[in-house]
Design a protein that fits this description.
Pfam family, one: DUF347
Helix content: over 70%
Number of domains: 1
Oligomer: single chain
InterPro entries: DUF347
Protein name: Membrane protein
Largest sheet: none
Keywords: Membrane, Transmembrane, Transmembrane helix
Distance between the termini: 33 Å
Shape: globular
């Protein structure tokens, strides 16, 4: 099998958005949709975990193929991939926990180790984990691999704290929000490295979104607010579509030139 060609010489613009407030809003909404949509498809619509996993994996791979083929950042395409990978990441965790009976602490640690391995391989290969330099296919593949396992790990960790540890969805969401606040404080007040700050916040938004999704969608008897997976998924998807439409029109989150590797 021939090695992946490093298209570093091609004139590609950065393939991911600038990190703005819009980025974090859509990211948290997408992680919530990943949790509720997976439950909606597998349970509410009766597709089951296996069929849902195959369907969503197929849609994700198709969207990812178009994303990899694109030569610049396209908001609608990029965020479609993020929404789909959030669902797939949730399903990866659910298949191991609900399908195979693997304990949440085990899956949480396992996904954490895999994610660490992706970061190590990425750093050794590209000498940077900066999202301002996703301009080659190899870097983009590392980027999406990291994102997939942040979603899978975040699902397991969120369920571990909210359900297995008995904190409840609301308390778990507050804990993860507080941790994100700590990362922001360390970055802006104490000048913690920007790349490290970004990935810590990115990882933590997943269990925050998962806990928030369960809090909104689960019935009151299960510790939720009883809004249901249909209403929660449609509401959050509508907001995502609206914000992405604005970004597509305004280009406010497009990185037009190469930024510093640091």
């Amino acid at each position: 099998m021939p090695p992946i060609q490093d298209d570093r010489s091609h004139e590609l613009l950065n393939k991911v958005p600038e990190i703005t407030a819009y980025f974090w809003i859509i990211k948290i909404l997408a992680t919530t949709v990943g949790e509720t949509a997976a439950d909606l498809l597998a349970t509410k619509l009766g597709l089951g975990l296996t069929i849902t996993s195959y369907v969503m994996a197929g849609l994700f791979l198709a969207a990812l193929a178009f994303q990899l083929k694109a030569r610049r950042y396209i908001p609608s395409l990029y965020w479609l991939v993020v929404v789909l990978i959030s669902v797939v990441g949730t399903l990866v965790s659910d298949n191991l926990v609900d399908g195979l009976g693997i304990a949440l602490p085990v899956t949480s640690v396992a996904f954490g180790l895999i994610l660490a391995g992706v970061f190590v391989a990425w750093q050794r290969s590209e000498r940077t984990l900066s999202v301002h330099s996703i301009r080659t296919t190899r870097r983009e593949l590392f980027y999406w691999a990291a994102i997939l396992f942040t979603f899978a790990m975040g699902t397991s960790v969120g369920d571990l704290m909210a359900e297995a540890m008995g904190l409840g969805y609301g308390t778990a969401a507050l804990v993860f929000a507080a941790l994100i606040g700590c990362v922001a404080l360390l970055h802006y007040r104490f000048k913690m490295n920007g790349i490290l700050s970004f990935w810590l916040a990115y990882i933590l938004t997943r269990p925050l979104g998962a806990s928030t999704g369960d809090l909104l969608a689960k019935p009151v008897s299960a510790g939720g607010l009883g809004l249901g997976t249909v209403g929660t998924s449609l509401l959050f998807l509508a907001v995502i579509v609206g914000v992405v439409a604005y970004l597509s029109y305004s280009n406010t989150d497009r990185i037009e030139t190469a930024a510093s590797e640091a």
